[in-house]
Amino acid sequence: MVERTVDAGERMADCRVRAATDVLSHRWDGVILAVLGAGPHRRVELRAAIGQVKDKPLTEALSRLIAANLVARRQDTGSPSINLYELTPLGRSFHDGPLQTLATWAAKHGEQLLDASTCTTDPADVAL
To answer: For 24-47, what is the mean pLDDT?
Structure first.
């Protein structure tokens, strides 16, 4: 049996690939995953780490990431109780795999992208 080579266009038509790339198509999703790569964060800590995100987009991004099973919200016992956001095993694999690869690529080519971009966030501010 001969295996057929699949080109990039065919792979992009695959729903699984589109689902994976959709994670990075939303402005804050990849940034949130990068921040959570360092460990669980409270909502206020996420906002502080990201810097420029408003409350509504943060809520929407967290909801999307939770629905995609990349982030989990758990209640930390204590007084008062607080919600912590953390990567799920799937989210950790996304962080440690494609997101790390993208960060490495961006470190090498980021200046070229920023020259043509209106992005005002310093990529060095977000550690993966």
So the answer is: 94
